[in-house]
Amino acid sequence: APEGCTTVPIGPFHPTLHEPAHFAVYVDGETIKGCDYRGFMTHRGIEKLCTTQVTYNEVPFIAERICGICGSVHATSYSQSVELAAGIKISRKAEYIRTFMLELERVHSHLLWLGVAGHLIGFDTVFMHSWRVREPVMWLAEKITGNRKTYGMIIIGGVRRDILPHKEDILNVMDKVEKELIAIKNAIVGDTAIHRRTKGVGYVSKEDTIKWSLVGPVARARGVDIDTRRDHPYAAYDAVQFDVPVVDTCDVWGTVLVRILETFESIKIIRQVLRDMPVDEPLLYEFDEPIKPLVHSISAVEAPRGEVVHYLITGEENRADRWRVRAPTYPNLQGVPLMLLNNQLADAPIIIGSIDPCFSCTDRMALVDLKTGRQSILTNEELERLSRSKKV
Questions:
Q1: What is the Cα–Cα distance from 38 to 185, expressed in whole angstroms?
Q2: CA nearest 144: which of 159, 163, 160?
Q3: Cβ of 115: how many Cβ atoms within 10 Å?
Q4: Would you place residue 20 in the very low, low, confident or very high pLDDT band (cuts 50, 70, 90)?
Q5: In this predicted structure, what is the pLDDT of residue 154?
Q6: SS3 breakdown of the chain: % helix, strand, coil, rounded to 5?
């Protein structure tokens, strides 16, 4: 801790954190002078599981459970990496359906975050209205896929279900969400109490945003014009028209604006998907050729929080040799100490919450030999065997 500062712990269990993580915040009076992050308390070993226990086709359903909010993002990114390695080209219709699922997920994620942000600054009216508007989106997802979340729609080679039978329902829900979100946006933009709690709070310059490789709405709120959907198109994003909202306020207020504006863009994309999607193409590409081992592939997808990257090395026995997932919280956490610096302690919850942290997406564990610096990853059986052989 800096000299003369008091350490205030936030976490590992704290009302403002929905997952266990620990922030040691160093304060001088009420002013934050530094921060130390200690996480990695929700490591689940998903990467290792999927390279030792399950085959390629089973992983998309596990990948969806990396994150409870953006499961389709991870399933899509993983499936794309396998398809690239195997030379699989999915149908255009399947690409459109993937685009729809990703944007539907973005709508509900941004509305969820907006409500949580309101709650973190003590403005539960925003919380209640945002989640009220979000609920029809969840009902729609359940009607189309059978689940409110973890849809199971994205698989290697395409998708499992068509969305065209639900076209009218989808358009009705999008019209309703758009109309009610306009009212919420106007209320937020005109509310001076929200301005006082978000404007100038969590400031990070555009230069530092680039230096620390921040991504998603966090970066776009600080003037960095990046979006994987536009910059490296996948699925059907090369065929839809949308704007990438970018503001230069460099603070939490900018993040609020970007997420609201992105929700409107997602609704626009969904309407284009339903208008332009092919009708008669197959949903799934049938393939029975074995995937060659030691093929390297990478896939990037724009999640609601920012860029998700899946790196894959194919292996033997119909499973990956190595699978590496980088969720957007991983780079965005690097910016949290900068965001907290010289702000008031009371603003710490909304600053941390502004990156929409998903710690279970990010947490991982490696065994490091301090003498040699060598790193290794253990399977559950190896860790158990090591524990049993420990000399007391």
A1: 35
A2: 163
A3: 22
A4: confident
A5: 95
A6: 50, 15, 40
